[in-house]
User: Fold this.
Amino acid sequence: MRAILDGPPDRMSIPLVLAATVSVMLGDFDLRGFRGALASHRLVMILGIAVAAIAACLVVAVLLFYVFGWVALWVGRLFEGTGNSRSVRSAVAWGLTPVIWAVLVRFPAALMGGNANMRARTAGDAFVVDPTRFAGGCAMALVLLVVEMGIFSWYVVVASSTLAEAHGFSPLRGFATLLLSILSPLVIVLAAVLAF
Assistant:
């Protein structure tokens, strides 16, 4: 991380954020549901909606990246950090690399279509879930949950270290910066809700 921060301006920040966003979206993709939507609706309409939603998610992700970088800069300054906005944004982007590598798990899971045992049927106008949908067990869901928890832990370690390097302090302060940067918008929203 130090070599990246000491080098010329990092041009990989936005591509890293976009790649991490695509990786997260793959975790939510349901191939069977998509096939069902294509079978019951017009192809052009479904693909148009999908492309528009993906583009909107990518734009929002970049905006949130800049907001989070700004918050991490000022939270790091509370811990006597010396990072500037460029280095902190770069550290936040490179901290997302575990999320990008998670595509190696999320892509096959998306191709499997989620829970292979889930079945549903319609009864008149009502959508009824088959009570035997978990008959095959939920071992795959448990495995994916454990893997996702491991990826999240890996992200926390890497992001804490990159923020610590950008601010020039210990990884423990980097973890505190990451944690407070994530929690501070929630605290502000909660305070605003309680105020009104």
